[in-house]
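Exercise 3.2. Students should predict the tertiary structure of the chain below and write it as structure tokens, then compare their answer with the key that follows.

Predict this chain's 3D structure.
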Amino acid sequence: MRFRTALLLCGLAASVTLAGCSSVPSSTPIIGEKVATNEIFTSGYGPVEDHGYALPAVPIQRVDPKYHRQIVDYKTSEKPGTIVVNTPTRFLYFVLPGGKAVRYGIGVGKQGFAWEGEAYVAWKQEWPMWHPPEEMAVRRPEIAKYVKEGMQPGLTNPLGARALYLFNNKGQDTLFRLHGTPEWGSIGTAASSGCIRLMNQDIIDLYARVRPGKGARVVVQQ
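Answer key:
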């Protein structure tokens, strides 16, 4: 396994909360259900009331259709439930049974912060706090106050509505996250500090599918 520039990235959340219900229903079957049919969910980006937060609609017509959430044919040797991040194409795949996957558009790390390797989703959190690492605060002094105290959850929090926390096979936190973002315009670009970002409506959908533990394998391809 190989991670690059791991310690310069998203930082740790301050606390773990139990996974709760989302007001956005999962749009496709999860593991163990019948094989899904290819479909695009362009209509799934409207406003959302979620745990007291009013997520605004994404102006999805301004996002390239290839980055809209959709079920696609996907040939892979990975088991259903695996997450595959293809950095060059800016796609994240959640593997389904029957040669299918849910495909999401993503934003990836800037050159120099990109990473690759294997991990697993150790835990997940709704509306997480954000603790940027000290290295990031050196580059951006305006966020230094959040290193210790953290940024409270909310619509402008860089981790968005959900975060999935990636650990290596030794049980160590990689400091990489799959998370939401209010910056829908960054999807399809290399704009983040290294973590993988999805539109908030998409991370809510992905979050509902993932069962944390070593079976929730994540493969990041360069």
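Discussion points: Helices lie at 134-139, 146-149, 200-209. Confidence is low (pLDDT under 50) at residues 1-9, 11-26.
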